[in-house]
Amino acid sequence: MDGNYDVAAIRREFPILERKVNGFPLVYLDSAASAQKPRTVIETQREYLSHFHSNIHRGVHALATQATEAFEGARETIKGHFNAAENAEIIFTAGATDGINLVAGTWGRANLTASSTVLMTRLEHHSNIVPWQILASEIGFKIEVIEIFPEGTIDLEDYNAKLALAPSLVCFSHVSNTLGTVNDAKLLTSLAHDAGAIVMVDGAQAAPHMNVDLQDINCDFYVASGHKMYGPTGIGFLYGKRALLDAMPPWRGGGEMISSVSFDVPTTFNVPPYKFEAGTPHISGAIALGAAIKWMESVGLDNIAAHELALTEYAHDKLLQIEGLRIYGTAEHKAGVVSFLVEGTHPSDLGTLLDQLGVAVRTGHHCTEPLMDWYDIPGTVRASFGAYNTFDEIDALVAALERAIKMLK
Amino acid sequence: MGNMKLLEARQNEIVEEFSMFGDWMEKYEHIIEMGKELNPIVENDKTEDNLIRGCQSRVWLAARKEEDGTVLFSADSDAIITKGLVALMVRVLSGAAPEDIAKVDLHFLEDIGLNTHLSPTRSNGLASMVKQMKMYGLVFSARS
How far apart are CA A280 and CA A261, in angstroms? Predict the structure, then answer.
């Protein structure tokens, strides 16, 4: 169905895909929650821990030099892959959530006032809502919601109307984790810039599925999580334009982020990215994230995207043959996610029975309660795809679903 | 006035009932059946106050103390498997003495291999419901 894409060879690189669950071969359709890890990621982390672990940026010995080079090499890989202008614009964080909290805690605290407005879409994950709500409760700025159409796309008319409120900041997800909608990040950014706003993009669900060119999108901030792009948990990055990062106050205080510390004269701070990387970072995670990105590049993100698109279309066709099944999120541009409900069944019941049949899906509100409330549903069943998923696995999902529905009805 | 033997007998009865089923599918079919049969909670009791929010499914639990001192539970859930598990809990604990409810060791789910449903990470509201039932037991025994 998709030419030369050797999914069998890709699957062999993922040891976890060999295991069974409840006696059935694992059908892992939850990559949007977290992707599995290829051998090169596992090996890179093991290699680091076994051969050259050391603290970075401070020692003069061989191990410290080697670890520092690998860590900074990973930053270089991220900068190159996402086409940032310079390495200083890539800040290692614990993940996308951590990156958003960093922007809220520094840029937000320094630039938002009681009379500010922050725009965000109805599609957002809680991690792109709550940090701003917490800050709003402190500072008193207003949060306005950009509405969507029932298919899960942003209502541009409403967006333009809200931009007329002269917001200081616009936050949106590049790809919706619940519906799979791919937002036109470049267009949304340019409209926001025309209105004088700073733009923060949550790229957690986009980074594993497509080539992302940050200078082309031209957003001011972009965050992603390593574990969703086949890398380790606990590591991710924040991209910020250099001029903004230079002007932003530091976030967490500690080692590494300082220039000079004194009890007598004011402590001075390091330059970006180090200004925002207090303490010993997740060194092995960063290095392995570099390996994960190189792995995605070796397969080719365009190839991964084409494969996932084929899987998504196949899943749509097959699932819609099930009576009473409704798909949530039917935008023309989608990435790797199919959310659905079956009339007369509860998503949690379907998830429980699918698990018994070895099929791992996510059920619930997917940390997007405002979106679920808008659809007036308790949640959905979400099947999400990665580079390693197969058409057979979608058949297995459909067969398991039919069995589960029969039991529940 | 407690009668812990009653609760033990009820749990054992359920364990025995489930021992007849060969595979997980039959077990779940039975749970689903019980979910369907559970007397629906009276609409008046299906309030926000009685709602126990799980991440995945919602559970309502109401309790009242009868004149003989025992506690009567009624419960519901929007998910049928959760509702079946809720029905099992009600079957064991409803009509028991409050001090027994507070103290009882609920082992039957583990015995029938369904204890994963009680894990707090399961987020189906069942673990919170059991905690709430025991809380009612504690409160009602303190008042008597």
Answer: 17
